[in-house]
Amino acid sequence: MRKLQPRMCIPLFSRGCVQFQHFTSVPCQTVLSESSACSCGILMLALAHVHKCRGMSATASRLLGPLSEAALGYSAAKGSRSSQSSQGTSQPQSSGADVTEAEVQLKFALGVELLMEHAANYSLHGKDEKALSTLAPAQRMLEVSGSPPDLASGFYMQYGAAYASLRRFGEALQEYGKAWEILEKYNSTRSLDACTLLFDMAIAAAGLRRTQDAQRFFQEASTILDSTASGNLKLTWPAKLRNLRSMSFAMETAGSIEEGIRPLQQAWKVLRQANATESLESAALLHHLGALHYYLAVYPKAALYFDLARERHQAHGDFSGAAQMWWLSVVTTVRGWLWNAEQWLHP
Predict the structure, then answer these.
(1) To pair with 240 at 20 to 30 A between CA atoms, which of 24, 65, 102, 255?
(2) Which of 126, 144, 162 is the last residue of a domain?
(3) How far apart are CA 68 and CA 166, in angstroms?
């Protein structure tokens, strides 16, 4: 999803150091003026990007933290001033320069993007709860920003993904639904963004054991993926394979292992049509199929899949992977013999 690009932030880096030093010392409960909040926000966004580009993601997170708190305070103060204005209550003027409505919306849009960046940094380090709490204030700021469609749809997709990572699939679907409404409003339901969203919705639906909905979302996503590549399957098969396996993992997570096999069978058809049945990707798919059949106690078939995966690893010179598949095949075969003996002794 394309995000707004604050191209003006880097030139402000050198001249804004004094503002940055002042900003980090401002108590969180202090209400910043609109202009100072914006300039400091742009500066800290620049700093965060610089540190992140250098691989210092922890430093980026530390720099983004104070601005997240200030952005939340700014949103609350804006709402308070609007409430006082509607009630006819007089209020002091801001010490900052007067700004237009468009400038205010831009500031909030940059704030939303910043919080999304901060949340993504938390998710990268496995701190999903913090990522979710970081995105919460951005939802109010998004409304004030005028909700630019590309930013809004990207935000709700990220918000939904944050819920899904915590296995809160019902709430994830609600956020995904908001993103889908935006895509529908702007006639973007046949785009690759829509395709990604539908796959996410399929996984969330599978997590809720809504198998029919999951299959419907998945089918719609597959249709879009085919059409956007103008029928050239070779351009799409890696993406389709990835999404089909994700769908299978989601079914497994929901406890529907048999349902999880179906996307993998479809994935094999994709590989066959793309002439990629001897690739390393096919070895990973065969390994996956073997594991699911093992869980279902269909040991002969599982062993066959492991053997086929071993052959492909060996053909590509991946002897470590080949050894692993050989060992799984042996263990599965022995387990099958023991299972047959148990059935014979205890019919």
Answers:
(1) 255
(2) 144
(3) 22
- For 305, other C-beta atoms within 10 Å of its C-beta total 25
Coil, helix or strand at residue 2? coil
Total residues found in the chain within this entry? 347
Cα 40 to Cα 24, 31, 110, 345, distances in angstroms = 9, 13, 11, 76
Mean pLDDT computed over every residue of the chain: 74
Task: Give CA separation, 164 vs 135, 152, 249, in Å.
Answer: 14, 18, 13
Question: Is the separation of the CB atoms in 222 and 240 below 8 Å?
Answer: yes
CA distance 105 to 331: 62
At 91-133, the pLDDT tens digits run: 554 444 445 666 666 777 777 787 888 888 888 778 889 888 8
Tell me the per-residue pLDDT of 259-290, one tens digit each, with 9 for 90 and over.
889 889 988 988 998 898 998 889 999 999 99
| Secondary structure percentages of the chain, helix, strand, coil, to 5 | 80, 0, 20
Mean pLDDT of 285-307: 93
Q: Is residue 155 part of a domain?
A: no
Question: Which among 144, 171, 195 is the end of a domain?
Answer: 144
In-domain check, residue 332: yes
For residue 330, the 8-state DSSP code is H
Q: Please count the other Cβ atoms lying within 10 Å of the Cβ belonging to residue 310.
A: 23
pLDDT in tens, 248-259: 887 787 677 888
Region of 209 (left: φ > 0; alpha: ψ -120 to 50; beta: rest) is left
Q: Are the C-beta atoms of 302 and 332 separated by less than 8 Å?
A: yes
Residue 336 has pLDDT above 70, yes or no: yes
Domain that holds residue 52: 1-77+102-144
Could you tell me the two tokens for 2? 């394309």
pTM of the predicted model as reported, rounded to 2 decimal places: 0.59
- 109 falls within a domain: yes
For residue 261, the SS3 value is: helix
Answer whether residue 106 is part of any domain.
Answer: yes
Count of structural domains, the chain:
2
Q: What are phi and psi of 56, to 5 degrees?
A: -95, 65
